[in-house]
Specification:
single chain; 9-stranded antiparallel beta sheet; 6-stranded antiparallel beta sheet; globular; ATP binding; receptor; transmembrane receptor protein tyrosine kinase activity; kinase
Length: 500
Amino acid sequence: MDLFFNEFQHLKIQLQEIISATDDFADDKVIGKGGFGKVYKGEISHFKGRSMVAFKRLDSRCGQGNSEFWKEIMMLSRYTHENLVSLLGYCDEVREGREGREKILVYEYVSRRSLDRHLSAPTLTWMQRLKICLGVAKALTYLHDPKGTQHRVLHRDIKSSNILLDENWNAKLSDLGLSKIGPANQQHTAFVTNVVGTPGYVDPLYMENSVLTKESDVYSFGVVLFEALCGRLCFKYSNGQFQSLVRLWKRKYKENKLGEIIFQDLMQQMDASSLEIFSNIAYQCLKTSLEKRPPMAHVMAKLEIACRYQETYEDNAAIKTETTSHILRSAEEPLSRGILVNDGKTWFTRNKKGEHCELISARECFNPIVGEYRSEENSRFVLGNYVESGQSFQAHAMARFLSPGIMYTVNLVFKFLPGKDRRDPTRYHLKYQLGEETNCSISYLAHGREDGWMMVELYQFTSDSTRIDLDIGFENHLYHAFGGRFSIIVEGIEFRPRRT
């Protein structure tokens, strides 16, 4: 037992520090409450430093006891994932003059609180809802399909109020106090146990036979997916009686009448394919038969596809908006000459074949160790050109508006600094590395462009969508083929359709 408690010694926080941080659990520090007690906000030091945190103060009268308290500590300290809420500490002390022990869990502070508060908000976009659901799916996949020596974890209480949201709308699954742990190397995990969970979210089969499986979590997550789609909780009270909406939602899906239940503020935002994939996987999660419910890894994969469809839809809409705005501003300038999109970070053009070309500004995609940015005559970007300083530098270039099915070249666009070495620019030596490749590449030829800049080809690929992310590490500066270093200023990374 001592070994068990010693494992968590680094998480212990003194009660007096918590009392000071919460002004002795003052009402104006309360940020939430539930069946367990109240949650308070305050700033405190912990094993990761000092930050704003959330204090979950357990009320022994509310039913969450000693076993749930220690299980939460054990689970969140051993299982860490970007979409699981982080445990920063705990307190288990007797308070002088009070009966019982103060049991307090200390979590990372998530400023937007829980998903249930935002379901009916028109400001929570369809894209944000997709990404929130995807984040939870990633967390559940991590718990259900562990790696290495970890055991499988069944959450047992998936619901929108247990999905917390940080300032960037990233999902954080919380409340593992009711979870169950099973072997990792078994295809099927089942527990005969007392039924716990929240009405409306609990798997009907679990309620009927008291057998908990990972498919029970899948069912509960399917309910959350429909909540995100419909913009409301999965239940209502009619004449004081609890009424679940899940059966209605399933029927409307089967009758192909989703339009009657979808949150109306989302209708104009949705890509049809994104909606079809999302609603289908949500319905599959709610299947009566365990065997017909998909594993969480499959659910996660489908949500990733739904997100990609929605991203493409929104990117194309952005292009149309920018193009229309450009035409309205100056009908005399054809789109082939280019326009700034993506808040001025991308120069977008379309060639005679209608193929898209993107130039991502250096300020947007470069992460230099040493160097500076400045404006340059005839550059398409204001204060967006990187002055190469002879040191290694990294680029992360994300193209958003590519033409699918087109062979593209990826190019470094640069020019020589005025007054610097201007020897024959067509032969040079540039060493760079793409993504996670172990070997470096070397380019030897640069080409002049009609716009007055130079261009170095780094890579070729065939686009399978409108987006691509590339990481490029430049290990040294440009060298003349016959010796001597070039001093250059970089405008950005270009994705250009290859000439055939």
